[in-house]
């Protein structure tokens, strides 16, 4: 099965689809061709696709908000639509994504677009249409899109004068329901023409405009009706000229529902055609708060879909609606007005199924090695009681499907099973694993500080490793975050479950090393969730100290100006002012630095420039009690880090690539495993933990001879205390046993690579793989990582 929620680049997904479905392979191989063919398909040939389903991508949980995906197969060609609430979801087979519908504009609903569009861009999807509320469009013809990295671009907007979006598969109508942010009592219901934007491949995050007005829209797609089939055999029996040219017009007329006269005999369409299948309608309702109940429930456009008349009867209503809204009498009665044949799907925080079984499986197995270093993952459970609905309804689970064609039905076979016992059993059967686990038991550790690795991969988030984020638990009341890549909040949610609010409320300081997307794009989401946490715990609000390259303010200012208030959430301390010997020009900054130190019980917070991109920093924290923690961020081996971290207690250093790939590492300005260890040894650090592994080492990096008693590797959700240092190198043997197969494969690849290298003289850099230092210098870049496709595919298949 190709799992939908795999975080993969398009190239990989395309390859994957090829291997999985030879039937579709020709269509899939060439996306451009698919688009061309689609365009050249003659109009009027509309019989409607034979398979269409709606699938839940994000069930609406706090860490994986609601998002829905519509699949339609038109002949051999796939088409996809995406009703987005939150896009922190998977990079599903994005090659085929041609439409994205947003129900409203907010970080919650559109924040995931930045990552999504970076991926689309990486993978060269020719175009993708975004539809949604009016804020999507500025001045009707032009929209400014920003990405997270300050690249401003304009995209052409195609104004959509019809109130509907229509294509080969379906028609989507949008009904906006307004609710003025300033005066919630003043509610207007207005129709508007939706706008469609064609996104040029190189564009980035759209700029939500004027999102202070709460506007959301409903979408009700209706599949085109499918005409009945002509019963040729019966026609022949009736003496019609089947098999000759004369039959063509007769079939056409009959299918169109007309009565024809053949040789004086009247033939009614019902006699020779199976009944037509009217296109089922489904509604996507995003009703975020009680303010919208009235405009929703009194909307007359919708009433037509509630009557149960044959043509427009609604097959499915998707409620992206919180329990508090569902539980109102008005909403309940509105639900009851749909015919009893209508299915209701509810997507909100009242959902408890994990969406990433691979990560649960890994953590369950690692937990066998050490229950404290690898604590079990948790689920955030909302405190809202479930609404008592009066109509039958279905709660969303990840990857659940509702098929619209050929037959209306729920399909649960894609829902992944998450059976811990099975995972444990599987690991227990791995040769030597349990023996090695026994060997490394029996170590006790001191308490503080505690480090929780939230993301230990580089470049783009994947199922096993997410991108940079490390929580440092300084005391029982203070925590600090080192980098905040996309998905950091989700990781906290899965690590702490119901305690996530408590954790967020203790977070006072965030360090962002540099402005590559894998290190900072999770920040806005995290800040918004922190605010929510402080509110719900009834704690006083205070901004976080944000220690980051000052250029991050361009991004935050943009978001603040055009989307929603965010600046009050932070106090910026530019990283450059914490370098050794730096002059701090402003009194305000000076006092912020003092306050941040005091808050975290630190005597020193130092930064230094590193050798990566422009304005990339490492940092070092020295605690009152004497320990010193150094974090490299992304960098090639760098002496400034060594000098800053002399005799440090712990060095967390990036080790993006394996040994033997020094050239590539240098080109991308990253370190290899042994280079990272070398820095730690030069520094005389007491202990070294490696992170930021290329996603080609999703499960485990390759070990080198330089590994010694002072070196450990990190995993997402790994939690260590300083007392665990002696334990960490001991974990390596059971880890090697558990991942023996992967390690063997990687070693084989290394050998092949080395043989190739000796066979070919080194190239001059002009040919072969594309380089991107130029683009990199513009900063608008997800860090590139040419993931090894074969392995990725293999992994997917085996899992
Ligand atoms: C709309 O266009 C006018 C004139 O071109 C421009 O001055 C204005 O800033 C635009 N509005 C927005 C929101 O971009
Ligand atoms: C893409 O951008 C170019 C340059 O801005 C523009 O000429 C072209 O029309 C755009 N294409 C689409 C499909 O918007
Ligand atoms: C990485 O983040 C994504 C999106 O939040 C999530 O689906 C996935 O489970 C995460 N991976 C791990 C290892 O937790
Ligand atoms: C930090 O550690 C203390 C003691 O182990 C624990 O009570 C607290 O919840 C931890 N905080 C975080 C943010 O992990
Ligand atoms: C580091 O430790 C060594 C020996 O343990 C000592 O000689 C040296 O002065 C220390 N360096 C610093 C900068 O503290
Ligand atoms: Zn990085
Ligand atoms: Zn980087």
TrEMBL record:
InterPro entries: RibonucZ/Hydroxyglut_hydro (IPR036866), RNZ2-like (IPR047151). It catalyses: Endonucleolytic cleavage of RNA, removing extra 3' nucleotides from tRNA precursor, generating 3' termini of tRNAs. A 3'-hydroxy group is left at the tRNA terminus and a 5'-phosphoryl group is left at the trailer molecule. One of its GO terms (biological process) is mitochondrial tRNA 3'-end processing. Its main location: mitochondrion. Homodimer. Interacts with PTCD1. PANTHER family: ZINC PHOSPHODIESTERASE ELAC PROTEIN 2. This is Zinc phosphodiesterase ELAC protein 2. It comes from Sinocyclocheilus rhinocerous. The gene is LOC107750164.
